[in-house]
Amino acid sequence: MKTHYLNEKEENSIQTAAEILKNGGLVAIPTETVYGLAANALDGKAVAKIFTAKGRPQDNPLIVHVASLDEISPLVESVDPRLYSLAEKYWPGPLTVIMKKSSLIPDEVSAGLDTVAIRMPSHETARKIIEISGVPLAAPSANASGKPSPTKASHVIQDLDGRIDAVVDGGECSVGVESTVVTLATEPPTLLRPGGITPAQLEAVLGEIQISPAVFEKLKEGEKAESPGMKYKHYAPAAQVTIIKGDFESFKKFVVAQKETVCAVCFKGEGKHFENYIEYGSENDADSQAHSIFDALREVDKTGCNTAFVRCPVSSGVGLAVYNRLLRSAAFRVIDLDFSIPVIGLTGQTGAGKSTVGTILKDKGCYTVDTDLLARKAVENPEVIARLCEKFGDDIVSVGVLDRRELARRAFATPEGTKALNLITHPEITRLAVEEIHKAEAEGAKAAVIDAALLFESPLTAVCDKTVCVVADEKIRLERIVKRDGISEADARLRMNAQPDEEYYKSKSDIIINNNGEDLDVKFDFIQEG
User: Fold this and answer.
1) Backbone φ, ψ for residue 210 (5° rounding)
2) Residue 360 predicted with pLDDT over 70
3) Model-level pTM?
């Protein structure tokens, strides 16, 4: 199929687009939110082509676009009077309203639900196309399913060239994120997807509203999507996205500490601190963030990075829409670096007695974060398993269970394999460690102690206020390992020689604890200092 490029400023382009739509074709049209992939909403066969072109799941409902209020009545069982109040304030504009549907709406549009989502776009070209075509238009975002939504005609071509009949170039979208979706089919009305119309603006017209838990969380197993944009993962580049909460200094320290080349997606003026970066709007301007976020997510893959860390926006007003889109882009992967207790990194050479120091810290009211346990938990994550299979072979999983021994054999066979294993697992270990730190806060611990033999080889140093290494004389370490593990001195020395020397640990640590067997003459003041 040849995709025709039409410019809204060229003569007959709008008429051409309308004719394609009347004849059951697909046209990507500009709106103020994002570009939509339009089809005749009353023609189930035409609408079905949208799902094929996008690769969109059939259980994801679509929004019906109209050009006037008069077009709504035939599409619904009855017009809720509150719609007129909302329309008076916010239509045409980035607001979608859900009501009970009429028999005119095909199941392809509503995904089998008994409701229909309707909006009136403010983009003049979009409304002209609807008027001239003479039919309401079903139109999800004009991108490949799961990818960042398109805010420019070039984004549509990038994803759908050769898969749709035409694209109408109407310039860059002014809002930049999809419309707010509110359903009037519940009491009180429910915000299902945040957008350019904020919760406060809805409340000004509707009074009390509720916000669906799916704005912040994954849909529960078996739960149906009541609105577009509620699926588990959306708006995602090929690179893995993680949201970072906390101030800029925490963000910078965390990103710089990464052991792979990553992309920092940050606010205006912050990019100069990073090797690879994309800026999306200003820190205190949610409208500018909304306008830029999808473009920024598309730019991530152009950096060549496999991982992107995104500065977290505020989750209120229009910022709630940006945060919601990022949550789904990141598959709800969030690392919150805003801690209220000190975080201590504890490491040391084998046989030095790190576990002894850990026990003392626990007795003093600290919470231990055991990275060995977290490493085992990390490889239970389906996304981590998928990346491990991609690198080390699908046969490391048998009957749905990861063969840890076989993974270790392949990964540790070469330095390159070991590095690849660490790059895949360390981000998840870090995320789990941060969850444990917040658990320590909730339990009232004096500090969280990250117990990690490979502390300095991982990004975990970035979350530590202090790093502590435990050292001991070589002869004492040798005796301890032989006794502890029941091995020969020769085997013990092999283990000792596989680690960096004592100076490596000392040079990277804030605090050094000598543990040669006598009572530890240490005051552990760093717990209070942070």
Assistant:
1) -115, 155
2) yes
3) 0.90
